[in-house]
Design goal:
single chain; alpha+beta; Porin; elongated
């Protein structure tokens, strides 16, 4: 029975196909397919005609870069790191912003033990993305492998701020603390990390090593055995278990270090003041927990034909109670040879580190004020307190704030402070940083005859530039500061009876400090520095120009 027209099966293009005989239906279907193919092909050609030329070129380029990326990844799997480095560099020449290639290049450098090149590669990425967790962690690991543990802390702490549950960051920072013998800090870091990642054998292994150095043999064994259960192929864990059984620690215990410093300092200013200073310091330290400095000093101050001397002995101690608290203190005496008087000198304070990158300190002290021969003859001392805040911001930026109040023994009162911000522009081949400093202070009483510069109000704005680096055994650290200062000072009148009036003055300020040292070997080093400045405040004499030289010798035992 014939089927009605609406129910008959149709081809893909049945609306344009003619009715044909049954034995020729395959010809009709073939023609329909050909017609459709022609239409779609024509559409594709017309579409391609309207694609911009640069887009047409980028398609094969992207495909080529993707192919190179695959080859680089395969080279990494084969541990052919030199080949991988060349391929990643090829991608970055065409696509400098390619994050995946930049990370791959850094990893290839790291695994081929080119640690400094790895750091440079990761820092390029961190300039664009300061919160990239992988780049932060790998940078810290590279510093660890270079033995620069203090520099490893910052990127690893930043990685944990970005991703608090990052197991890689926690493990790498625990290694830093372990290498610095900060065993308590390492344990406090590892325990919450293990709670978040209980099946990460590296965390258990690191905890076991920390506990082994703490002398907790049973806990160390259990942690290392747990790490071995999680990863039976962990050969280092197996070795650590054997070392623990033989009671051979993997790292050395803290030792007592002794350092002797001998210095000579000479300063001359434009108004005739001269200072000759000879400090000698014996420094003892035990690990990173405790340090002590015993300093004896002779200072000779002269103004034209007048001269006076001061001899002093002082001791200073610093003890780190825990990760967040450090205690400081010390004392001594200064003998004013001209008048035969002795004055006590002392200080005490504390430093707080409540979080990574933040440091707070508070100090109460009494010290001598001897920028001139007259101040030394009058035996001027200064007593008061100061507070300081230091914070390391992201993108290699640091902020420092200081405020102080002091009472002098001639009943004058000083208060002031300064704020400074610095930013590191680059690290290699030398470290260059720039910054800005605002300084403000005021004395309650103006006087011309007490031996020190006491402006009613002093304000300065200074641009800071620092260059720091080394060339072989030669180390250098150069500061260049340029700015403007405004102050109100007393000036003698030209009429009788003699008196003084206040005068406001604004002038440019300049300071250049060139610090150099040469390391002969691990025990001996030589220091030589030069200071040149144009400022009314820098030495406390009120002189607008001065220069100074420093020579020193350090002996380590």
């Amino acid at each position: 029975m014939e089927t009605s027209a609406p129910l008959r099966p149709r081809t893909a293009c049945s609306l344009c196909a003619p009715r044909v005989h049954r034995k020729h239906k395959w010809i009709a279907r073939l023609m329909s397919v050909s017609a459709c193919s022609f239409i779609f092909g024509l559409y594709a050609l017309l579409s391609l005609a309207f694609v911009p030329p640069e887009a047409q070129c980028s398609l094969p380029q992207r495909a080529s870069d993707q192919n190179v990326k695959v080859q680089a990844d395969e080279a990494m799997k084969r541990r052919d790191y030199s080949r991988a480095i060349a391929l990643y560099q090829q991608i970055l020449r065409d696509q400098p912003e390619n994050e995946s290639a930049q990370l791959g290049l850094g990893k290839a450098y790291l695994l081929s033990r080119q640690f400094k090149a790895a750091i440079d590669s990761y820092e390029l990425l961190l300039r664009r993305d300061p919160s990239n967790p992988e780049a932060l962690v790998r940078t810290g690991e590279a510093y660890n492998l270079l033995g620069e543990y203090a520099r490893a802390e910052r990127p690893l702490q930043q990685a944990l701020r970005v991703a608090p549950d990052d197991a890689d960051a926690a493990w790498a920072l625990s290694r830093t603390y372990l290498y610095e013998t900060r065993l308590g800090d390492a344990e406090r870091l590892l325990k919450p990390a293990i709670a978040a990642h209980p099946r990460d054998f590296r965390l258990w292994e690191s905890l076991g090593e920390v506990q082994s150095h703490q002398g907790r043999t049973g806990d160390a064994r259990r942690s290392l055995q747990r790490a071995l259960e999680l990863n039976p192929k962990a050969e280092r864990t197996r070795i650590l278990l054997q070392v623990r059984e033989l009671r051979k620690p993997a790292i050395a215990a803290p030792t007592l270090k002794v350092e002797l410093r001998d210095r000579a300092y000479v300063l001359s200013d434009a108004v005739g003041n001269q200072i000759l200073d000879f400090p000698q310091t014996l420094r003892l330290s035990y690990g990173t927990r405790w340090s002590n400095e015993l300093t004896s000093e002779y200072r000779r101050l002269a103004f034209r034909s007048l001269a006076v001397g001061i001899a002093s002995v002082a001791n200073s101690t610093e003890f780190r109670a825990n990760r967040a608290l450090t205690l400081t203190g010390g004392g001594g005496a200064a003998r004013y040879l001209a008048g035969g008087t002795t004055k006590p000198i002392y200080h005490g304070g504390l430093k707080l580190s409540p979080m990574a990158g933040l440091q707070l300190s508070f100090t109460y002290r009494q010290h001598i004020v001897a920028p001139t021969e007259l101040a030394a003859r009058l035996a001027v001392t200064q007593r008061g307190w100061s507070s300081h805040l230091g914070y390391s911001l992201p993108k290699a930026t640091s902020l420092d704030l200081t405020y102080y109040q002091d009472q002098l023994n001639d009943f004058n009162h000083l208060r002031g402070g300064h704020a400074e911000i610095r930013h590191v522009l680059w690290e290699k081949p030398l470290r260059v940083s720039v910054g800005y400093q605002l300084e403000s202070l005021s004395f309650a009483r103006l006087d011309l005859f007490h031996g020190y510069f006491s402006p009613k109000r002093f304000i300065s704005h200074t641009a800071l530039v620092n260059f720091k680096g080394q060339k072989g055994r030669f180390h250098y650290d150069y500061d260049l500061n340029v700015g403007e200062e405004t102050y109100t000072r007393p000036v003698l009148t030209s009429t009788l009876p003699l008196s003084f009036v206040t005068q406001r003055r604004s002038s440019p300020r300049f300071l250049a400090l060139l610090r150099n040292s040469y390391e002969f070997d691990d025990q001996w080093s030589l220091q030589f520095s030069f200071l040149l400045y144009r400022s009314a405040l820098s030495s406390g004499t009120g002189a607008y120009q001065a220069h100074a030289f420093l020579f020193g010798l350090t002996r380590r035992f």
